[in-house]
Amino acid sequence: MKPDDSNLRGDGTAARLAFNRALLNPASVALIGASSNQKKNTARPLRFMQKHGFAGAIYPVNPSATMINDVKACGSIDQLPDNVDHAFVMIDSAGVTDVIEQCARKGISMVTIYSDGFAEAGEEGIQKQRELYATAKRLGVRVLGPNSIGLANVHSGAVISVNAAFEMDNLTAGDIGIISQSGSMMGSLMSRAAARGFGFSHLVSVGNESDISVGEILDAMVDDDATRVILLFLETLRDVQTLSNALERARNAGKPVIAYKLGRSEQGDALSQSHTGAIAGNDAAVDAYFRAHSVIRVNMLETLFEIAPLAARYAHLRPETWRDTPVRVAVITTTGGGAATVVDNLGLHGFVAVAPPTTFISHMAARGLNIRQTPVIDLTLAASSEQYQDLLTEIMQADWCDAVLCIAGSSAQFHPQYVVQPILNAVETTHGNRKPLVAFLSPEAQASLQLLQKNSIAAFRTPESCADALAAFFVPLGEHQPEKSSSVPLPDGCPA
After folding, report:
1. Rounded CA gap, 320 and 291, in Å?
2. What is the enclosing helix (H) or strand (E) of 440?
3. Is the per-residue pLDDT at 307 higher than 70?
């Protein structure tokens, strides 16, 4: 486990760039313990990088093989060229400390350790991890892990990971970075989101965080031009000062950080601790910490990636202070039942579906569309796609609501031009920056979801995740919730 005098990277620009490149954008990778048996996990990283087009140098290290997947293998680390950017260690834990020493001799300063049997394995493993960290610090080697399933640069194809999710034929490159304290969930999030058309820049599994922490990886992603939104899957908070500094840099850079954290329940807290050897801490304190550092915390796993377009497009509209009145949402629907499910969930978060004022109703009537003064504007069989677009355009410029929610029925599945294209046109016409607009599609409509996602409009598959996203978005930047700000102790290491 990481001591208090943690080995933070240098503050200089050169040190930062070198760290970021070796971690997120390596041009050469050594695979220590790579297997020639394609059925083994340790054969995956080489196969993945070949499959996904990594153009850099790959050096498998295996004393029992001369060629692996048509790539010449090195019999030992000593046979590697000098100054390889990144090494991925896939051997028994007993030999890992020796590998760190060998990497240091070859000038390899960035090492990711897949091997387990460290802090997550009890007292003996904790001591072994301390010794590993002490050796790495003494030699100037930075360590991701141990017990890390690896990481990936989707743009370059540097898939330094054994996660089976990378078996997929095509990785979708995009602007979302993922940092996960669960290796398996890193892949699960990617596969779920990729099915919806979301693309990623980097995915990183932190493992036990013996050295490199979530905060340092977040800091590197803030500097990364390919990353616009950063998602966190967390089981605990470690090295909180580094994390706090990185979150401040992310906020200043206009890069939203969205978090899903386990440990809300007593049993969930215990499971988080046993999984990585960490102590998850008081969840109310974590909630306050996220608020204080402008992290958008979601309660549903699917919301973690679904909210990304909302957070990115409308980051400048997040409130600065708590409201004295409920958030007013203009709800436009082509399905009465679908609207009711979302409005019900919004109500649980203290939001209100607001009816248009009489002046707006008269305004729209003069434009050829008759609507009623009800909390939900129901256009089912009552408006053309052109009228729908006109209505949205006018609402986006009105001042009687704080957000716009478009709910689509069956047309979203078979006729997206009727209910999805008007949304795209309205956002483009108004430049989409005066108030947040989101969509909920009641049927299973993958094509429409992907069309909205492609155009950076947040679209949701369930009413619960839609309401969760809006509620998380409207939590004020950098403010504690008044009734919780002073009575809850922060997690160990959190600044008061």
Report:
1. 11
2. strand 437-441
3. yes
How far apart CA 77 and CA 106 sit, in angstroms, is 8
Residues 403/356, Cβ–Cβ less than 8 Å: no
Angle CA 428–431–432, to nearest 5? 90
In this structure, what DSSP letter does residue 378 have?
A: E
- Are 90 and 46 in contact by the 8 Å Cβ rule? The answer is no
Do 320 and 281 form a contact (C-beta atoms < 8 A)?
A: no
The one-letter amino acid at 470:
L
* Residue 324 CA, distance from chain mean position: 31
Task: Output the CA torsion 3→7→8→13 (10° steps).
Answer: 180
The torsion region of residue 241 among left (phi > 0), alpha (psi -120 to 50) and beta comes to alpha
What six digits make up the tokens of 178?
A: 């993922």
CA distance 228 to 164: 26
Lowest mean per-residue pLDDT among 45-49, 191-195, 471-475:
191-195
Which SS3 state, helix, strand or coil, does residue 175 take? Answer: strand
Q: Is the pLDDT of residue 26 over 90?
A: yes
Mean per-residue pLDDT, 126-155: 97
Has residue 475 got a pLDDT over 70?
Answer: yes
Apex 123 CA angle, 119 and 126, nearest 5 = 30
Q: What is the DSSP string of 220-253?
A: HHHH-TT-SEEEEEES---SHHHHHHHHHHHHHT
Q: CB-based contacts of 252: which residues, under 8 Å, 6+ apart?
A: none
Calpha distance 128→145 (Å, rounded): 13
- Alpha-carbon gap, residue 304 to 275, rounded angstroms: 21
| Mean pLDDT (whole number) for 423-451 | 88
